[in-house]
Design brief:
By secondary structure, the protein is mostly beta strands. 7% of the residues lie in helices and 37% in strands. The strands form 6 sheets. Strands 1, 8, 9, 10, 11 and 12 form a 6-stranded antiparallel β-sheet that branches. Strands 3, 4, 5, 6 and 7 form a 5-stranded antiparallel β-sheet that branches. Strands 19, 20, 21, 22 and 23 form a 5-stranded antiparallel β-sheet that branches.
């Protein structure tokens, strides 16, 4: 009964400014100055002691979505958070109107800003029981109102996990899917007049015997940035790689190198809609817990509850620097 009622409604959501916090002005897309070296994005506002992933700006620059995960390795739960620009101030991040009941992650706006794609463990069969694998869903956005989430269908989704949707300007969908052999591969689904075509691998130049996932596609499909685990040239547990489309074929993936990748897990690439800023998630840990003297309770608590504590944080860098690093390799 609840499901029937839910699917008959449109969820309209607005933020209250009364208790909103400010995001520093330099984090607003209309006046953003990205750093020349990777650094924490919106430290202690977006990047905190929590487990944050998946930076995602709306095309108009007025919404920022990301994921906060719990800290359980055995029972990971993801929730999508939203901060909105109101009167040149950024609201305190709150759970997005379509999230908060089931495990949801990996938000990505369509280039026209009319849809938001994401992954979810919510049931697609009309029951209330969470799915045992993640599928790709979407919501439509009309005049600040969010539709009820809709399942993307079996041409894209399977009985295994699908992760990290990314959509090009012409509507083509890129994502990663569990393949049962090497972990995950990056997949492609062409947008047609009737929906998405059956998904296929984007090819062996990107997908290898290692694991490939979390792929960002550029709007014009000229390059793709993805995460890979298990490659010989890897710097850590997972690194970011880039591949270019040349003569309608993808080139061999190239490691983005030190300064972006680290000895820790680096994943979840995204580029701001204006093309200026490169965002990604890193699980780097600067808390060595080696002290030259006895520390106080307050110092230890601060140490535990600061960014760079080994959980996910969102980093950013001038997108031009990403390509400079490739040119200099």
């Amino acid at each position: 009964m609840f499901k029937v009622l839910l699917f008959s409604l449109i969820i309209c959501y607005s933020f209250s400014c009364a208790n909103s916090a400010l995001m520093q002005k330099e984090y607003s897309l209309d006046m953003i100055i990205p750093p020349s070296q990777s650094e924490l994005f919106a430290s202690n506002f977006i990047s905190t002691s929590n487990n944050e992933l998946d930076a995602c700006f709306s095309p108009d620059g007025n919404m920022f979505l990301y994921t906060i995960a719990n800290n359980s390795y055995s029972n990971t739960f993801y929730t999508i958070f939203l901060s909105k620009k109101l009167n040149n101030k950024w609201s305190r991040p709150e759970i997005a109107p379509f999230s908060g009941q089931y495990s949801d992650a990996d938000p990505f706006f369509s280039p026209d800003g009319k849809k938001l794609y994401f992954i979810s463990y919510r049931p697609a069969d009309g029951s209330d029981k969470p799915n045992n694998n993640s599928d790709i869903w979407f919501v439509e956005i009309i005049n600040d109102c969010w539709s009820v989430p809709k399942h993307l269908g079996e041409a894209v989704n399977s009985k295994s996990d699908e992760y990290y949707p990314s959509v090009s300007k012409n509507g083509n969908l890129y994502f990663s899917s569990e393949n049962g052999k090497t972990g995950y591969d990056v997949m492609f689904s062409k947008h047609t007049d009737t929906g998405f075509a059956k998904s296929v691998s984007i090819g062996d130049s990107v997908n290898t015997m290692a694991t490939e996932y979390d792929a960002y596609i550029s709007p014009d499909e000229s390059y793709i940035i993805f995460t890979s685990i298990g490659r010989k040239d890897g710097l850590g547990s997972g690194d970011l790689y880039i591949s270019f489309k040349v003569n309608d074929k993808w080139t061999k993936g190239v490691n983005l190198g030190k300064g972006i990748n680290s000895p820790f897990m680096d994943q979840c690439p995204n580029v701001s809609p204006d093309g200026k800023c490169f965002f990604y998630t890193s699980f780097r840990d600067n808390n060595s817990f080696v002290f030259s003297k006895k520390i106080s309770t307050a110092e230890y608590t601060t140490h535990l509850h600061s960014p760079l504590n080994g959980l996910g944080n969102i980093f950013w860098i001038d997108n031009k620097k990403v390509f400079e690093k490739i040119d200099n390799q």
